[in-house]
Amino acid sequence: MDYTKTLKRGENVTHYRNTYACIRLDYLQDNVETLYQKVRKPFMAIIKANAYGHGYQQVANVLKDNPHISMFGVATLKEAIDLRNIGIQQDILVLGAIPIEDLDLVIHYDITLSLFSKDYMNEIKKLYHHQKTVKVHIKIDTGMNRIGIKSQEEFEDILTHCQNSIFQVDGVFTHFATADDPLQKEAYQSQIDMFYDIIGQHSFKYIHCQNSAAMMYHHDERSNLGRIGIAMYGIDPAGEECKELKQVMSLYTRVAMIKKVKKVNV
Ligand SMILES: Cc1ncc(COP(=O)(O)O)c(C=O)c1O
């Protein structure tokens, strides 16, 4: 194993033991480029859960200057604030539900929230007491069955309420449940059809639905932003070996001892 050479490259190293995770931030950039060459649209980099365990600070710091990354996506408000606190200036969308009581933080840190139901919208309106508008992306649930509205009526209703209001609708999005499964192409198709049926002819700054698998195994022209997660970290979404992507994290250890043991029949 090329242990010392890896250390010299200045990558993340855990000290005091011979086992460590090596994070290749240059591979991260290569993967972004590979995915960009496939879909040729800007990306929201998904760096929730400590950037899928790769270290959100280091990951965000290299991605913030990548010309293909237009914004960041995280799961919680805490993760969004952490990104602001390390100087990330791009828009940050919280993909999950932000507690209404934390609305002041949303405004203070200029965070974009997912608007996922009429009740949630009304709750925000009730509590709101700021001058600035609240940036939102409307979440449509087309089959993942997480948060999100499920009908065109509800969508139109929310849009109407958002016009000339405290809300600034910057985007609309959905999330696929099965884009990584070649046996479930129909489920993917029904989700994307439902997404565009619900949006109708409305246009938005950002229309986004493609996660890594959707970008790698399917084609979509209308969405204008891709959300890259697992593939950016170099992992094939279907769990196959993938020559196109470079695995960003590798685990190394130094073998302490090799010994022969007797076979035991149990
Ligand atoms: C709403 C949403 N979009 C995109 C992603 C990124 O998905 P992937 O890692 O499959 O690219 C996630 C990850 O959980 C997500 O929750």
UniProtKB/TrEMBL annotation:
Its cofactor is pyridoxal 5'-phosphate. Its EC number is 5.1.1.1. Residues 23-237 form the Alanine racemase N-terminal domain. InterPro entries: Ala_racemase (IPR000821), Ala_racemase_N (IPR001608), Ala_racemase_pyridoxalP-BS (IPR020622), PLP-binding_barrel (IPR029066). SUPFAM superfamilies: PLP-binding barrel (SSF51419). PROSITE patterns: ALANINE_RACEMASE. It is an enzyme of class 5 (isomerase). One of its GO terms (molecular function) is alanine racemase activity. It comes from the Bacteria. Keywords: Isomerase, Pyridoxal phosphate. This is Alanine racemase. The lineage of its organism: Bacteria, Bacillati, Bacillota, Erysipelotrichia, Erysipelotrichales. The gene is alr.
